[in-house]
Write a structure and sequence with these properties.
This protein is an alpha+beta fold. It folds into 3 domains: 62 residues, no CATH class; 105 residues, Band 7 domain (Tetrahydropterin Synthase, Chain A, 2-Layer Sandwich), CATH 3.30.479; 42 residues, no CATH class. The protein contains 8 helices and 9 strands. The protein is rod-shaped and about 170 Å long.
Length: 290
């Protein structure tokens, strides 16, 4: 009997502890909570600490107090007012400021991100659709993202959220447009290269022609000077020969004959047919050298 009472006491104690444990919940300083009863919100808890709820009847849903980020999953193609197309990626930061309204409209963060991404994409299309490409690439870009943030904030406040910041991460031409621009730029650069090569070839031809002209002039001038020097040398040689011949005609004649003999008989295979009485052999027949 005592054993059964003890078991019942332990069982009741465990149930009581579990009941007490299920009656309390804590809210972290980075969280905010809504107490639900059968799916219906009963109260919002914004302050951190220990709180009470009815066990097994009420449950708690937690939401972030901190700033959350959202990166667009896909690039959006936007048509600008000048009919140019851009692919735009956005980045935004948001915060849950009204947990009850947030729960009633989007339920959770997944639903919030889907709604928020759709709202931001629509706002980007509306704002950028009024602008030209030159405006987006100018210093006015900050004003543009501020306008997008203001427009989005007015909408998401009805969802219990607040937009902290919206940024355009990337704004590029679509792939087909980029390829067309690349092909056009390449064609323009190739045309410029052809023009530069043609100009270079023309300039090179001018330089070569001028060099050939200078070469011809220099060679002609050098030949002229060489002929003048050679002429002066020949004249000087003739004068020296003439002076020497005038001083000793017989010796000069003898010297010239010896030079002629030396040049003539240097080759053993040389054959000459001359008369013995020829003047060439005067110094062979006259032993006195007369």
């Amino acid at each position: 009997m005592m054993s059964n009472i003890r078991i019942l006491t332990y069982t009741f104690g465990i149930i009581t502890l579990f009941f007490i444990y299920s009656s309390f919940f804590t809210v972290d300083q980075t969280k905010q909570a809504i107490v639900l009863q059968f799916g219906e919100p009963k109260r919002v808890v914004n302050k951190p600490g220990l709180n009470f709820k009815v066990p097994f009847i009420q449950d708690v849903t937690y939401f972030e107090k901190r700033v959350l980020s959202l990166v667009s999953s896909d690039s959006e193609e936007v048509i600008l007012s000048d009919q140019k197309r851009l692919e735009v990626d956005t980045y935004s930061r948001f915060k849950i400021i009204d947990p009850l309204l947030f729960y009633q409209t989007v339920r959770n963060e997944t639903g919030a991100r889907q709604r928020l991404e759709s709202i931001i994409d629509s706002s980007v299309r509306r704002v950028l659709g009024k602008l030209e490409l030159v405006s987006i690439l100018s210093d006015a870009r900050q004003n543009i993202v501020d306008d997008i943030g203001t427009e989005v904030n007015q909408i998401v406040k009805r969802l219990g959220m607040q937009i902290i910041d919206v940024r355009i991460r990337r704004a590029d031409y679509p792939e087909a447009t980029s390829q067309n621009i690349f092909n056009r730029m390449r064609s323009e650069r190739e045309q410029e290269a052809k023009e530069f090569r043609a100009q270079g070839a023309e300039e090179a031809q001018k330089i070569r022609s001028d060099a050939e002209k200078q070469k011809t002039i220099l060679i002609a001038e050098a030949k002229r000077k060489a002929e003048a020097i050679r002429g002066n040398g020949d004249g000087e040689a003739i004068k020296i020969y003439a002076d020497a011949f005038g001083k000793d005609a017989k010796f000069f004649k003898f010297y010239r004959s010896m030079l002629a003999y030396e040049k003539t008989f240097v080759d053993k295979d040389t054959t000459m047919i001359l008369s013995p009485e020829s003047e060439f052999f005067d110094f062979f027949s006259d032993k006195k050298g007369n």
